[in-house]
Design a protein that fits this description.
globular; mainly alpha
Length: 100
Amino acid sequence: MVRLPLTPPEIERGQRLGALLRRARGERPMLRTALDAGVSPETLRKIESGRVATPAFPTIAAIAGVLGLSLDAVWSEINRSDGEVESARPGRDAGERLAS
């Protein structure tokens, strides 16, 4: 099977996802976060760096769960327009972000 090249919007979403996960992880060690989520540290490193722009949903769900991010917050953050500056924070979902 041939994998099609990623589109610019897919690459941008991957970069936003990586930035969100790095911010949410904060000072928490990458190794501990990866192991707690059941993914390899290299997978987490690639996602955070944007090298894997379209990771599998279960992978994102596991990492988000470990970091205390709701999937609504992750979805909102990676699909926001570039003009939006609000960032998702652990434990806050999209509805709470809109209300603040």
